[in-house]
Each structure stands twice: as C-alpha cells, then as structure tokens.
Amino acid sequence: MFSTISWVSLVLVLAGIVIHWFVSPSPRVTKREASEAGGGRPWSGCCGGKLSTLACVVALGSLAILFVTGFGGLLLLDEQIHGYTLMMHVGLAPVFVISAGVVVIAWGHRCRLDESDRIRLASLLCLKKPETTDTPNLGWKLTFWLGLALVVPVSLSMVLSMFPIFGTHGQETLLCIHQYTSLALTLVAMIHVHLVIRRKASPVPPPPPKK
Amino acid sequence: MIQVIRTLLPLVLLFGGFVVGQSAEKDKGLGDGHDGNRASITHLIDLYDDRGKQIKSADAQPRPVSMRNTCGKCHDYDTMAAGWHFHSGSTNVLSGRVGEPWVLTDNRIRAQIPISDRDWKGTYKPEDVDLNAWKFLKKFSSHFPGGSYGEMAPSEDEVGDGDEEEVDTSELFRWEISGKYEINCLACHHADRKQNQSDAALQAAKENYRWATTVGSGLASVKGTASELEDFYDPEFDGHKIITSYDKSRFDSNNKVFLDIVRKPPSNRCYFCHSTQDLQTPGKDEWIHNEDIHMASGMSCSDCHRNGADHMISRGDIDPSKNPHGSDDYLKAYDLKKVGSFSCQGCHMGNPGADDPGARMGGHLGAPVPEHKGIPPVHFEKLSCTACHSGRLPTENTARVRTARMHKLGRHGPHGRISPQLPHVVTPVFARMANGKIGPHNMIWPSFWGTQANGVVKPLAPDLVREIAPDELGMEIAEPERVNDWIELTEKQIGNVLNLIGKYEWELEEGETEPKPVYVAGGRLYSLSNGFVISTNHDAAEPYKWPIAHDVRPAAQSLGSNGRCADCHDKNSPFIFGQVEVDTPIKPAEKQTVAMTEFGELDRSYFEMFAFTFLFRPWLKAVVIISCVLLGMVLLLFALKGLDVVVRAAGKKASDES
To answer: Where are the domains of chain A?
Structure first.
C-alpha cells in the first residue's frame, strides 16, 4: 500500500514539476529581491554566509541519502530497510536534523511571509484571483516552512519509538507516521528545490518615468 | 418371487446400515465422546489382565492389569495409539517439528547418537544402530510411555523363517516372559499421588514390562525379575517366579477398583519424562530455580498441550496460522485452526486462522496481551517468542542441562544410583528454526564410530564397536580416568580403531561399495587418509539441536524487557556473541567453542558494528529531541508572527470598512 502510494505520488510530483518547468513562465525578480531572498543563488547571500550555505547543502544531501536508503529497498525490492542500509539511514538522521535546525535559524527570517505573500495566500485560500500578479516567492516560502514543519514528526516518530513508551501497535503507528511524513517531506523538498532553481534572478526593466 | 425380493431388499439394506452404524459407533469407544457434562467421570471399574480375564481380589495368581483390555473397554485404544507419544515406532510415523530424540550413549566407546524414528535431520533410525523393539525397550524403557516398540513383539512365524531380518529366538522367549509394554495410560491420567513412575521404571529395568503399569499405579506390588529368569521359564512348569500381589483394599465387594482418572493429566505426571535439570546449579542449589511462569500462575501443562481422543497433543507451534513443518500428513492429523490457538501467539495474541471468534481474539485462560513497549515490530519477524522468553538466560558460554528422558532422571531407588552425564546437552543455543526465525535450542554434538559409503555416514552399533576394538578403546580398564565426563580419546586411538573397523569383514551385496571407517565427534568427521587420521566437516558431524520453549521466564526477565536493548544489542551480549561449547572426547580438557552467530546464520561483523552504534543511541536521541524542540520553537515563533500579521490585517480591514 505504502509502496504504491509512494510510487504514485513521486510520479505525480515529478510530472508536475516537468510540466510546470515547461509550461509556466519563469518568475522575474529584481536582483535586489533575489539577493534579499536568496533568489539567484538560492543558498547564498543569507545571514551566516558559508554556514547557512553549508547547512542547506548538508540538509539536502542528507535528505537525498535518507530518501534513497529509506525508500530504495521498499520501492525497488519491496523489502523493509535493514542491515548496513539501516545503519547508514539511522547514522545520517541526526546530521539531517541538526542541519535542518541550522537552516531554520539561518533562513527563517528571510523566508517569512511578507505582506504581498499574505495577500496572495489569502486570495488563494479564498479562490480569488490575486491582486498582485507577480508573487514569485510564495511557493518556495511555503514549501520551506512546510518541509521544516514535517521534519519534526519525521524525526520524533522514530526517536519516540526508541523509548519504552509505545507497544507494538504504537510502534507500528509510529513507523507509519515516519513513512508517510518522510514521503511528504521528500515531495515538498523536491517542489521547493524546483521552485528555488526556477527563481532565476533576471533584471527587470526599470519602471517607466512618471509623467 | 420378485415381489418377495422387492419387499425384503430394503429391509436387508436397512439392517446392514444399522449394523455398520453400530460397529462404527462401537469403534469410537464409550468413553471417547463427551456428552457436555463438565463433571469428571468416576472410574470405578473392572480390571482386566492381558488375557482379557477380570482381575479379582481373591484370585490366587492374578496377572497384572492390561491397559488395552481395561481402558480399551470404553476407549478406543488404537485411536490413542496413533497419538504423538505412542506412534513413533509405527510405519506411518509423523515427523512434526524437530524435537528431543532418544540418545544412545556408550561412554566406553565415546558415543552419543541421537535416535528417532521420525524424519528429523541428524537423527538415526533405531535399526541403523541395530536396535530392534526389544533392544530399544531395554535401552529406553525407564521413561517410555508404552505402546509402539513396547507392543512389537515378534510372532512365532517371524522366527527363523529365513528372512533377512530373522528374529532372535531368545528374544521371542524374553518377550513371552516380560510381556508387552502396553500404553501406560495411568502414567498420565492417574491423578492419585500413589502413582509412581519411578517404580514403573524399576519394573522396566527388570524387564517386567507387563507389570510396569500395575506397579507404577500402586495397585499391586510385584516380586520377581524377568531378566533373571531363563529363556525357557514357564510359570506352568517352573512355578510362578514373578508374583503379583494386589492391594486388596482397593477392590470393592463387586471387585471394582476406583482409579482417580482425570481427563487433563496433572503436570506432575508430565514432569517425570519432561523435566530439565540445570547443571550450573544442581543438587543442593536446585531450590533456587523457579518453575515455568505458567505453572507459577497456577496453570498445568495440559492447559496448553491439549488433545482429543487421538492424543495428537498440541505442541505449541509458534506460528499458529502456518504449517510449521511443511508436511501434508501433519496437517491432516493436526488441525492448525484448533491447535494453533494454544501456541504462544494463539493464547496471548489470538490465532488469526481459528474458526472460533474467541480464539481469534486470544487471551485463553486470561493470558495477558503483551505490549512489547519499545520493541520495534521487526523483532517479531526475526525472532520466535521463545527467543526472548524461554529457557535459560544466555551467558557468555552455553550451559549444560540434563533431561529426564535422556538422563533417566526421577528414578528413586536402587535403579537410580547410576546418574548418567552423557549425552552432554548444551543450552541455550540461539539457532535458526525451520520457520526461519531464531529461537533457543538444546543441542548435542553427535559422537560415534561409523562407516561412510557414497558420502553417506551411518553409525555402527556400540556393541559391534566394543567387539571390534576392545583393547584400543580400553574396555579392560575398570575405572578409566574421565575428563569432562569423557574418557579421553587420542588421535592415535582413533587411527587404530579406524584401522580395525576397516579390517572388519562386512557382508556386502554385489556392487556395493566397501564402506570407509569414520569417527564423528565435536563437529568433525575423522577418517584415514594414507594411514593418517584426517578430520573434515561433514553433515553427519553437525550438532543435533531441537527448539525449546520451557521454562518460560516472567516478562521482567525476558530479553529486551522494558527497553533493555543492550540485552542483545551490546558487543558483549551472549544472545548474539555468546560462545557455544563444542563437546568432544578429543582433548576434552580444552575449551572448544563455536560462535553463537554461526547457528543463527548471522553476520558477526555487522552485529558488532550494529552493537557499536548503540553506544551513540543516547546521543542520537538527545540530538534529535533538541533539534526538534529548536525547530518547533522557531516554527512557533514565525507562526505567532504570522498570526500577528493576520490579526493586524483583519483589524486594519475592519477599520477601513468602518
């Protein structure tokens, strides 16, 4: 069941990304905006400089490895994670969680939703056409926060299972939570990376002089 | 005429059907059914001897009680004889799960050979070591339930008829004197405290097989020893030399005798043959041991090990929904939907394959549903329940136990003075079971002289080896020195004995290969190569092991209880990294071991690394929890800020509208 859901959701998200890449026009932002929000080079220019860049790289890299080790056997061989793969998975998990913590501190302020994002979000929630036509930051900001919010259940579900708190049924539920939130985190991270990469900094023509 | 036939034919058919129906009902046995009344049935009954004659208190020379004729009056003896305890010697024997074998031991020739009629890998058939029914009884009758070999006395037609397996005439006479060892129903079902299996064992040791049940039950005392009588002893001519004296107070005025028969055998009855002695704390320290937790809570063996009239007692198979042995015959005889409900899983968690909805829910007899807090479910796929809950708690090195059947425990009297130490039973060995899970096993290292032909190794009968190489094996030494219970065997001795066996003139059929002499011990196969003794690995030298389930320890003493991962996932954990003793008469003073991981088919280096990671497990927990708290706080901070913006926007909108 989980394997099927994983395959379907991965295929859907990847297909969505590809379609979005070709169909939707690239957002156009000013260099200043891009710089402020880490636009052109998504992992640079923020507070902490190299540290936050490193944290981003480590977080994404470890997430990728965690995904491969966690989902590889399940999706390709239909077997649960075990052996050295499990050891690598568990060993890398704290690295990911720590880097996620650094990322949220280093990037949290820059990724906060501003007024235009709020209006855009409110419009979307009310199914209205937004007043501002160009709000390229909302997508990657939302996925940023959603991803980091998912890190908490992903991590806690496994750590809690290491304490003698939950019985067999609880353990199975925790494993289920870990699997599904991990899948969601992976999908959100993929969308986030896609949106950030697309957010290329390109000079916007200066506004026409006021008459 | 046709009219007459037409009229009579239905009547004849009806009568025929009635007769068949009656005879079928008769086969069932009056006492084999159950009318629904739960009250126990009072067994105030007539006793019958093996000739079918009723035994009366005033009889001058009464014969002993025959179970076939006494119990068989109301119960179908042959149906019972098909049960696990009694069918081992029959031609359609079921294998079932690997279990404790009989072990033929001979300290002088340094042999311990697992014997079983069942198709258990690593055991040998009785006939492989020249054990016919008579010899089998002589070896193993002290803890024998009767039936099977006990009733396989050869007929006179089989004696000297020129067949290959000609029956020894002397044995025929011995059978006549000793009588058959019928199924000893009272050994299990007689709840009277007078029931004394030690006495039955003593009678068996005297070859008084016919009398064993009677004496064991306390109904009579017997004077005389069959084994001391001559082959041609005939009570008609020689006078009665085995005297049966019944306790006359047991007979009422109608010559009926009350027997305290119970449907469910008391555990005390089971213990006589199914006890295990821990040799780490024998003798005066036995008192420190606890019973199985089920017993301590007031249950009895037969609460779980149940059976119907066929006496196919449920064996507590771990996976109640699966065929545990891959045998179709087993499934026919053994309804897993029913017996599976009385396995560990069936009782405590329910038998998903059961027809009875209650059995699917589990909780038989108030069995608690285990929570297994903190134990990842993957453990239940890899380990049997017994791995964590049963047997002796593992220590760095395996221990030794003695079992009632192998070591003839429980004989109190002159016949109990000899206390055999062989075979050496090593426990607990955590090995892979037939169902792929790891569970605790008892184990013996086979040791025997044998022959190898076409790669197949077969043991030689100990008596033959004694005959071939008496001097080399030191038969003449009255009190040989023993090390670790073994009389030490040197490689030179092995070579000499193998040479002597090689010179033995075998009766070979045309085209049959000359067998090569071999010796098996300590997991190695010894043979001669160009006059030198060499040792190699061979399947025949593999240790014989059988899964154990008792004693079950309390939950608090189970491995991994209350989140104690280090019970197994520690670099010093005996569960994975323990050492299994190699038991051998060759250099017995040296400590020889094999890693436990060999038996569990586990990758030792992986588990060492895995255990190493557990050193960092507390750090991992701390780091992840701190990171999650930090993440949560930052998320909360920005969520509150976002909420602030929303509230401000809502307020601004309201003031704009006003």
So the answer is: 42-110, 136-198
